[in-house]
Structures are given as structure tokens and as C-alpha cells.
Design goal:
globular; 25% strand; alpha+beta; eight-stranded mixed β-sheet
Length: 300
């Protein structure tokens, strides 16, 4: 009887693996899944103030922990700390196996609900709500976008380290503005101005490529709706309710508990990301079926 049960479990697993492979073979694959990414976090401008900034730092650190969990490289490009240990804005280059595949649906608005800690907005012990935004861009070694030197404004300034640990005595930090689009990138984490400029240019190319292809990608594949690029609370992708110790991903109605573990370990985030990828594959398969039916009806 025990042998029969083991054989049934093995058979069920094989069937599940075959179904997953079939879905992946039928569904149009994301062409940038194997790319490294540039990940940016920005504190929200909605009600919450320093709550948003503290939350932004926690989310940035969460992705740093996740990179460690996945054995990826996490290189901080820019870091703008706020008061009380919070964070206004930061960006990082994350390199490793299937980085973009795992992180592409992390982009969007993340909402926090919590009672402020002492030293923050703690005048009233009530639950505050704030937001922050995550942007995930695939990184390219060579991007087929021509950038004219006259279209760039390049500034240098003295870099301040994460959390204010040090201030460089030379102007090694670099800020590049693409004048036609208004896109701005900064890099200040390297002590070499040349290295900072090189990294900033790569980030600018990734942003320009994303801007050019975003509309085409959204039209081609509806699963891109899982990534929301604005910061309004109505478009949130995930909520972190500290008072109830609950994380909710609104796109797939997935609920997890133990926020501290979620932010620090990487394991729970990896579990959630696996569910997001599975949901995206199923959605893309349904879209493929609908397109096939539509094409067949037109031929009748």
C-alpha cells in the first residue's frame, strides 16, 4: 500500500511537471528573462511622509536580502537617505541567474499600513498608510538606441555614502540628464568618476529602451499589467499591514503572514514570486487560447 501511494505521488508530480512544461512551451516567453536588472525604489508622495521613507528603506533592504537568498550580486548605484533612517530614493544593479524573470512583476506601488515607530510620526497612536514605488528594468550590454552627445547634460558632485557614512573629497558622483526625454540617472557609490559614469550610462540606456518598448510590450502581452508604474494607492500591487502582520498581493489575491520574516529571509518572497510567475503563465495561456479562437473564427 505504501509503495502504491509513493507511485501515485510520483505520477502526480510527473503530470504536474509535464503540464508546466507544456504551458511554458505554448506561451510566448519573455525575451529578457535572462537579463540582469536595474531596480529603483522611490518613496511615495501620498499621505504618510516619513512612514513612506522608512518603508522604502525596508523594501530596498528586502530586495538586498532576496539577492543574497538567490546568490545574486547586488550593487548599489544610488542612495538618498532621509531623516530617521528612512530612504527617499535608491537604485541597484542586480546580476545573476534569471534575475529579470524573478523580479519583473515586483515593479509597481507597494502600500504600508502601520503605527509609526517612536521617532517617526508618532504623535497619535493610529494606523498610518503610505506608499512607495518599485521599478524594474532589464539591463543591456548594448542597446540599439543612439544617444547623441549633445542630448546629454553630465554633472559631477561629491558623493555621500549610504546612511551618510562618508563624503568623498572629490567629485566622483555623476548625474546624467537626457535632455530630449528629461530622464535622469545618478551613480555615486563608486569612488571612480569614470566607473560611476559608465554605470549611469548603462542605467540611462535601460530606461530609454524601456520607454521605447513599453507600449509595444503592453499591447503584445497582457501579463505586463501585473507591473504598475505609478504610485497611487488605487494601483497598488501589494499591501504590508504591520498591525495585522499580513502581506497581500492584490493581483493574485495571495496572502502571507509574518512580515518580519518576509522582509528579511527571502524565502517567503521567493514563494510569492513563484505564484506570480505561475499566474502570469496561466493568464498568458488563456490569452493564447482566445487569440487562437479569434483567428479560427475569422477563417470561417
Amino acid at each position: 500500500m505504501l509503495l502504491v501511494n509513493e507511485e501515485q505521488k510520483a505520477l502526480s508530480k510527473n503530470i504536474a511537471d509535464l503540464q508546466r512544461n507544456l504551458v511554458q512551451a505554448l506561451v510566448e516567453r519573455e525575451e529578457h528573462n535572462d537579463k540582469d536588472v536595474i531596480l529603483e525604489v522611490t518613496s511615495g508622495r501620498t499621505t504618510g511622509g516619513d512612514i513612506c521613507q522608512q518603508f522604502t528603506k525596508e523594501i530596498f533592504d528586502m530586495y538586498r536580502h532576496y539577492a543574497d537568498y538567490k546568490d545574486w550580486s547586488f550593487e548599489v548605484l544610488n542612495y538618498m537617505p532621509a531623516d530617521y533612517g528612512g530612504l527617499h530614493h535608491a537604485s541597484a544593479c542586480i546580476s545573476g541567474e534569471n534575475v529579470y524573470k524573478c523580479l519583473k512583476y515586483e515593479g509597481g506601488t507597494h502600500r504600508v499600513q502601520r503605527i509609526p515607530e517612536v521617532g517617526l510620526s508618532s504623535r497619535m497612536q493610529r494606523i498610518h498608510t503610505g506608499t512607495m514605488a518599485v521599478i524594474v528594468l532589464p539591463q543591456f550590454d548594448e542597446v540599439d538606441i543612439k544617444i547623441q552627445p549633445d542630448d546629454l547634460r553630465i554633472d559631477t558632485f561629491r558623493a555621500k555614502g549610504a546612511g551618510g557614512q562618508h563624503v568623498n573629497t572629490t567629485e566622483s558622483a555623476v548625474r546624467i540628464v537626457h535632455i530630449p526625454t528629461g530622464l535622469t540617472v545618478e551613480c555615486q557609490q563608486q569612488r571612480s568618476q569614470l566607473r560611476n559614469r559608465e554605470i549611469a550610462m548603462r542605467a540611462l540606456k535601460a530606461k530609454l529602451y524601456h520607454q521605447v518598448t513599453e507600449r509595444e510590450t503592453e499591447q503584445r502581452q497582457s501579463t505586463r499589467k501585473l507591473q504598475v508604474g505609478t504610485r497611487t494607492q488605487s494601483e497598488r500591487i501589494r499591501s504590508y499591514n504591520f498591525s495585522q502582520d499580513r502581506i497581500t498581493d492584490h493581483r493574485i489575491n495571495y496572502v502571507m503572514h509574518d512580515i518580519k520574516e518576509f522582509l528579511l529571509s527571502g524565502r517567503q518572497l521567493d514563494e510569492l514570486i513563484s505564484n506570480l510567475l505561475e499566474a502570469a503563465e496561466q493568464e498568458a495561456l488563456l490569452e493564447l487560447v482566445e487569440r487562437t479562437k479569434s483567428a479560427e473564427e475569422k477563417l470561417k
